[in-house]
Specification:
alpha+beta
Length: 900
């Protein structure tokens, strides 16, 4: 018999497939249904998706989406044939021993169990499954509670839960969690004296009603909102955003439903007849950094701000890491490259353009100016139509719409000064391109310049018809200029003259311009006076703050895909849209920021409620049910208690109607929250991170709480609320500001002792002790603070001027009640610090410390001056200084810095 070379090859190939077929037949013997989300997806993410996913599709094969995984590859055939593992190239490549063919390429072979899972999955039809977080939570079983789900798991794990904590510990925990500060002495005494289920519930309600509630929970939200008192980047100059911080505090205190809280921040300006508060709320997305550095391009950093808003929106409300989708489809989760830009289209049509003035801004008129505003709007209502009335209201509130001079081009004998302002010398000119005039007969020009200037404006060319010809006033002004009305869009050429200037001097520096129609009612009695009122209001300089304002239709900004994420290389234009992998866009919702907010808050959205209740849980227990607050995707951690998370998410929406206080109340009333935080050796070995929740929470306080608690127990804490940021004590030489010469000036009259939420936050130089205790610089959204434990933290609480002052003041309180009796003073100090009595063993240790310090300061009274005791008589100085050392030690105890 003769055998050809070709026939030999087929025989050898067939022999090579025998081990694969045997493995396949053996592996498929199990009838167990393979779960895609919990069994298959983790294997694909770990071994396959880096080469066959959103970033790369080697061989034209991707396992990110089912249609891609089952599609035809570069070989001309599909790699996965559902129901036929033996014919699937995907499975064959896992079994082969040929290093050039085996997958994963240049990596360790998959384990037998992993190959078995994938083989059975393909044989069972290669069904795709939805990741748990992308499926909306269902209604819980009847009579379910927080404890029902936790106890169910404890029973399954055969773990005995800890007993309830003692009343003093419980009250301190509750007070720190709800208000951020320890309980008052009177409240602690009353609670301990009459502790019961009823008094505990009443205490919860009392603390939730406290105005300090909003301050504590605002700190969490301000990390998400990247709130700061400076612009960021190189210059990092000051900005006045404190009204937004106060809005957040007030919203939490008023228990504003979370859906309304969301909609007002994302789209308050798009609500019907928005109030000032609703406009202030939109500063959530004006907290993005702004770059004033000379030579930078405003459009680049406007785009950077929009990108930040897309990322922040998806992180805060969806717990989704979307930033990578700017350049390519998500490597692990079902979000396509185009999804990113469809989301961007919702946010890309606002008036802000990274200008130094941070326009648009909401103007806060005084009472007299408010009357003038009312008079003008009444006039427009009387003589104009509804469109004219709305236009006048918006312009007086925000001076929008206006056009910024950084859009000018075709400069002759001029330049865009510092890449910010139109700056033209004598006889020079520039162009403002494609301006929508639409019959405008008035121009407001914001500029500064010297005497003798003159401006001529021509339409369509330097020799076109004259639109305006006016002298320029000296100073920093907003000049009203009468225009020749023109319909449609036109290029406008600005020609500046001032023969008295040197050749290098500019006639004026222009910041912005607004093209307007005169007030209606021309010819009516009082018209001239009303026009003057309008001009005076426009040219006034009331306090203001940046807010969101949507572009008018004539200034609509289209959104394009950025090829490979490069903002300079535009691809196709896109329309607003949401990812197909999540809930559908609500019917009838507008395709703008308001519609986006409504989509986020739709009950069908599978992520919003889960993400928020998980964040609340993390604040109370120190770790979320999903540990990765920032990532609910397939690379994030799975929930420790999936059913509990879904229960809370469902209750938040349907029972509590998005009430944060209602949700918190349910959690803190649970037995799980009230358990003692002490562990046992057995429990520590089985569950060191307390993921089973067999014991109560125990973790270090936040940076704000560490400082606020020290001020509170010493009696220094100033509970005044709201207003501009304050500057507490900080070590000298920390601020090294450039350009502005700005300095840190310690606040006075008790303002230096206000709560940490009011501390001035400069992004390039945050408050030192806050950063040391894991606070945020707020340059970008921070989903969770990762707690660290470093020697620097001890150095702060031992030596920082704030803590030294607090220790000295606490020592004075100890001395006032204990007199010269050191033991009595120590007991008093511990009671003030911990809201409970001290043990004899701890008393003895602190007495020893006191005696050592007392001997030292008796020998060297001048050393006590390090505690600012120059005014204390020498005879009393050693005792007070020694008590200050003890007070300082109390404030450095682990139990003081920890919520237990």
């Amino acid at each position: 018999m003769t055998m050809t070379i070709r026939s030999r090859r087929w025989i050898f190939a067939g022999l090579a497939l025998i081990p694969f077929a045997a493995a396949w037949l053996g592996g498929c013997g199990s009838g167990k249904k393979v779960d895609f989300s919990t069994e298959v997806k983790p294997i694909l993410n770990k071994h396959c998706i880096s080469c066959h996913g959103g970033v790369k599709q080697s061989g034209g094969f991707s396992v990110l989406f089912r249609e891609e995984a089952l599609g035809v590859t570069k070989s001309g055939k599909p790699a996965i044939i559902p129901g036929d593992a033996g014919a699937s190239e995907f499975i064959r490549r896992l079994h082969t021993n040929d290093p050039k063919e085996r997958m994963p390429l240049k990596a360790s072979k998959l384990s037998d169990d992993e190959i078995d899972v994938l083989t059975r999955w393909v044989e069972q039809g290669a069904e795709w499954g939805e990741h748990w977080a992308y499926v909306a939570p269902e209604a819980p079983v009847a009579n379910a509670t927080v404890d029902h789900y936790i106890n169910e798991k404890l029973e399954a794990e055969k773990v005995e839960p800890a007993p309830q904590a003692d009343p003093q510990t419980l009250l301190r925990r509750l007070s720190l969690d709800i208000t951020g500060i320890p309980p008052s002495e009177a409240r602690a005494a009353a609670f301990a004296a009459s502790f019961s289920e009823e008094t505990y519930a009443r205490m919860v309600d009392s603390l939730l009603a406290s105005p300090q509630f909003g301050e504590k929970w605002a700190s969490m939200w301000l990390d998400l909102a990247r709130y700061a008192d400076s612009k960021g980047y190189e210059k990092d100059t000051r900005r006045d955003f404190w009204r937004y911080r106060d809005w957040v505090i007030n919203a939490f205190n008023a228990d504003m439903p979370f859906d309304k809280f969301t909609i007002e921040q994302l789209a308050g300006d798009l609500l019907p007849s928005p109030t000032d508060d609703q406009l202030i709320a939109t500063a959530f997305h004006r907290n993005t950094m702004s770059n004033d550095e000379g030579g930078t391009q405003d459009e680049e950093f406007r785009t950077a701000a929009i990108i930040d808003r897309v990322n922040t929106t998806m992180e805060v409300w969806q717990g989704t890491t979307i930033a990578c989708v700017q350049c390519h489809s998500h490597p692990y989760d079902p979000f396509r490259f185009e999804d990113y830009y469809k989301l961007m289209a919702f946010l890309n049509n606002t008036r802000d353009e990274d200008t130094q003035g941070e326009h648009p801004k909401l103007r806060f008129y005084d009472s007299l100016q408010r009357k003038e505003v009312d008079a003008v709007t009444h006039w427009v209502k009387q003589f104009g139509n509804a469109t004219e009335l709305e236009d006048a209201k918006v312009f007086l509130r925000t001076l929008e719409p206006k056009v910024h001079a950084h859009d000018a081009d075709l400069y002759i004998n001029g330049e865009l000064a510092d890449t910010k302002w139109m700056s033209v010398r004598h006889g020079g000119s520039c162009r403002m391109k494609n301006i929508p005039l639409n019959g405008a007969d008035q121009l407001f020009l914001r500029y500064w310049g010297g005497p003798g200037g003159h401006l001529e404006i021509r339409a369509d060319s330097l020799k076109g018809p004259v639109v305006a010809n006016v002298p320029l006033k000296e100073g920093n002004v907003v000049l009203p200029i009468t225009l020749r009305p023109l319909e449609g869009r036109h290029d406008l050429y600005f020609i500046f003259r001032n023969p008295s200037l040197k050749p290098t001097q500019s006639v004026a520096n222009v910041e912005w311009m607004a093209f307007r129609h005169s007030l209606p009612g021309k010819g009516q009695a009082g018209y001239v006076d009303m026009q003057k009122k309008f001009h005076d209001l426009v040219t006034a300089y009331p306090p203001d703050m940046p807010v969101m304002v949507e572009n008018h239709a004539e200034l609509f900004r289209p959104t394009y895909i950025f090829e490979r994420g490069n903002w300079l290389v535009h691809g196709d234009q896109v329309q607003p849209g949401t990812p197909a992998s999540l809930n559908a866009f609500p019917k009838g919702a507008p395709a703008n920021r308001l519609g986006l907010a409504q989509w986020l808050m739709a009950p069908e959205n599978p992520l919003t409620s889960r993400v928020m209740v998980n964040r609340l849980w993390e604040q109370l227990f120190g770790i979320g049910l999903v540990e990765t607050l920032e990532d609910f995707g397939t690379q994030g951690f799975t929930p420790s208690h999936p059913a509990l998370l879904d229960y809370l998410a469902y209750q938040f929406v349907h029972k509590h109607k998005w009430s944060v206080k209602g949700m918190l109340r349910e959690i803190v009333l649970s037995a799980a929250y009230r358990r003692d935080s002490k562990s046992t050796p057995e429990l520590q070995e089985k569950d060191p991170a307390n993921r089973l929740l067999a014991r109560g929470p125990r973790f270090r306080l936040s940076s704000e709480q560490v400082r606020d608690q020290a001020l509170a127990v010493s009696g220094l804490l100033n509970l005044n609320m709201g207003g501009a940021a304050v500057m507490p004590l900080q070590p000298d030489g920390v601020w090294m500001t450039v350009y502005s010469g700005d300095t840190w000036k310690t606040s006075e009259n008790g303002n230096q002792h206000r709560r940490g939420v009011y501390t001035f936050l400069k992004r390039t130089s945050p408050y030192p002790s806050s950063i040391t205790f894991d606070g945020s610089s707020r340059e970008v959204c921070l989903q969770r603070r990762i707690r660290t434990n470093t020697p620097l933290q001890a150095l702060v609480t031992l030596n920082d001027p704030v803590y030294l002052e607090a220790a000295r003041t606490l020592a004075q309180r100890m001395e006032k009640d204990g007199g010269k009796d050191a033991k009595a003073c120590i007991k008093r100090g511990y009671k003030l610090a911990m809201s409970k009595d001290i043990s004899d063993a701890k008393t003895a240790v602190l007495e020893k410390l006191y005696n050592q310090a007392l001997q030292q300061y008796k020998k060297d009274p001048a050393a006590a001056d390090a505690f600012n005791m120059r005014a204390v008589p020498d005879a009393e100085k050693a005792h007070l200084a020694a008590l200050t050392v003890v007070a300082n030690a109390l404030m450095n105890l682990d139990e003081f810095l920890t919520k237990s």
